[in-house]
Design goal:
CATH superfamily: Amino acid/polyamine transporter I
Radius of gyration: 20 Å
Number of helices: 16
Helix content: over 70%
Distance between the termini: 54 Å
CATH architecture: Up-down Bundle
Largest sheet: none
Structural class: mainly alpha
Low-confidence stretches: none
CATH class: Mainly Alpha
Mean pLDDT: 89
Strand content: under 5%
Number of strands: 0
Order of helices and strands: HHHHHHHHHHHHHHHH
C-alpha cells in the first residue's frame, strides 16, 4: 500500500502541485483572445514538448550519482559558462514569477476587500509584499502540512469554479479563431503554466528503491495528462460563461455571472496559494544569492524581494505580459539546456537509469527549434 501511495499519490502530487498555480488564471484570457483552435494547437505542441523535456530531465537525474539540481547538472555535463547562463535564467525567471504573484495578489485582494473600502490594487499588493518579505527576511518558510493544505484548497476552488460555471455554460461564447488578436499571445503564458522541471528531482527522491524509480516515467506522463485535462476543463468552463469579457485574472470577469460569494472564495484561495508560492520562490532566490553567489544575507534579501516590487512600482503590472515573458525565458533557455544535458548524459552518465528514452537527434533539434521560434515570436509580439 505504501508503494502504491508513493507512485500514484505522492509522486504525481509533487509535480502537479508545482506546475499548477498562478498560471492557470491567465489561460482562459489568452485562449479567449486567440480563439479555441490556436489555443488547443499551443497546448498540443507545448504540452508534448514540455512532457518530453520533463522525461529528459528525469532520465538525466537517474543517470547521475548524488543529488543534483539544474545548475549542478549543467556544470557537470556542459561547463561553467553554461552554468552562468542557467543561473541568470533562474534569477530572471524567479524574479518575474515573484512580480507576477505581486500583480495577481493585488487584484485578488481588491476583490476580497472591495466591501471594506476603496483600496487600490497597488496598496493591497504593497501589503502582500511587505508581509511576505518579512517572513523571507526572517527565513520563515511554510511547512509541508501547510503546503499540502494550500494545494488541496486551491484544487478544490478550481473544481468549485468549474462546477458553478457549468449551469451558465453557453457555446455561443466560444470563438474558434479570433483574427483581431495575435496568435502569438498564448505561447509564453501556456508554457509558463506547464513548466515544472524543478519538481522532477524532488519527485524522484520520493522513490527510494530502483524498483520504485522505474515508475518515474509513468508518473511524469500521468501527471502531465491530469494537468492538461484540468486546464482544458477550466478554460472551457470559464470561456463558456464569460466569453469575450474574460478578464486576465479570470475571477473578476466571472464576478457578474457567478456572484460575489463564489468569487470571494476563489480570490481567498488564490491569495493563500500565491503567498505560499511567493515564500517558496522568494526563499529559494534569497538562498541562491547567499550560497551560490556568496552575497551577504541582507543584500540577498534586498535583491530577491526588492527587485520584484521595484519593477511593480515602476509600472510593470501586466500579469499576462509578465508570465508570458517568464514562460518564454525559462522555456527557451532552460528547456534547451535540459535537452543538451540529456544528449551529454547519454554518453557521460554515471549510472544506468531506471528508464531510457530512445529519441532520434532530429526530434531533439526540432524541440530546440520550437523553443527558439517561440522566443522570437514573443519578442516580436511584445515589441
Amino acid at each position: 500500500m505504501q508503494k502504491v501511495n508513493k507512485i500514484f499519490f505522492l509522486g504525481p502530487s509533487v509535480l502537479i502541485g508545482t506546475v499548477v498555480g498562478a498560471g492557470i488564471f491567465g489561460l482562459p484570457y489568452v485562449v479567449s483572445r486567440s480563439g479555441i483552435v490556436p489555443g488547443l494547437f499551443y497546448f498540443l505542441i507545448l504540452g508534448g514538448a514540455v512532457l518530453l523535456i520533463h522525461l529528459f530531465f528525469g532520465e538525466v537525474i537517474l543517470r547521475t550519482e548524488g543529488k543534483c539540481r539544474l545548475p549542478g547538472l549543467v556544470q557537470k555535463y556542459l561547463g561553467k559558462k553554461e552554468k552562468i547562463l542557467t543561473g541568470v535564467s533562474v534569477i530572471v525567471g524567479i524574479t518575474g514569477a515573484l512580480l507576477a504573484y505581486i500583480i495577481l495578489a493585488g487584484d485578488f485582494l481588491k476583490i476580497l476587500f472591495s466591501s471594506l473600502g476603496n483600496f487600490s490594487s497597488f496598496q493591497l499588493a504593497f501589503v502582500f509584499w511587505i508581509v511576505l518579505s518579512f517572513f523571507i527576511f526572517r527565513g520563515i518558510k511554510t511547512i509541508a502540512p501547510a503546503e499540502i493544505f494550500t494545494n488541496i484548497l486551491f484544487f478544490l476552488v478550481i473544481f468549485v469554479i468549474i462546477g458553478f460555471c457549468l449551469p451558465k455554460f453557453d457555446l455561443s461564447n466560444f470563438a474558434l479563431i479570433n483574427p483581431s488578436a495575435s496568435i502569438f499571445l498564448p505561447y509564453g503564458v501556456i508554457l509558463f503554466s506547464l513548466i515544472g522541471w524543478s519538481a522532477i528531482p524532488e519527485m524522484i527522491e520520493i522513490f527510494k528503491t530502483p524498483e520504485e524509480k522505474k515508475n518515474t516515467k509513468k508518473v511524469i506522463i500521468l501527471s502531465t495528462i491530469i494537468i492538461l485535462f484540468l486546464y482544458f476543463c477550466f478554460i472551457m468552463a470559464v470561456l463558456g460563461v464569460s466569453g469575450k469579457v474574460t478578464s486576465f485574472d479570470t475571477l473578476s470577469g466571472l464576478l457578474p455571472f457567478l456572484g460575489e460569494k463564489i468569487i470571494f472564495f476563489g480570490a481567498l484561495a488564490g491569495v493563500i496559494t500565491l503567498a505560499d508560492s511567493f515564500l517558496v520562490l522568494g526563499l529559494y532566490l534569497r538562498n541562491t544569492f547567499i550560497y551560490d553567489l556568496k552575497f551577504s544575507k541582507n543584500l540577498s534579501f534586498l535583491i530577491s524581494c526588492g527587485v520584484p516590487f521595484l519593477l511593480y512600482f515602476l509600472g510593470l503590472r501586466s500579469f499576462i505580459t509578465t508570465i508570458g515573458f517568464v514562460g518564454t525565458i525559462i522555456g527557451a533557455i532552460e528547456g534547451i539546456i535540459i535537452i543538451l544535458i540529456f544528449k551529454k548524459a547519454k554518453i557521460l552518465g554515471e549510472r544506468t537509469p531506471e528508464y531510457s528514452l530512445n529519441i532520434p537527434s532530429f526530434l531533439l533539434y526540432f524541440l530546440i527549434l520550437i523553443l527558439i521560434l517561440g522566443a522570437i515570436s514573443q519578442i516580436y509580439f511584445y515589441l
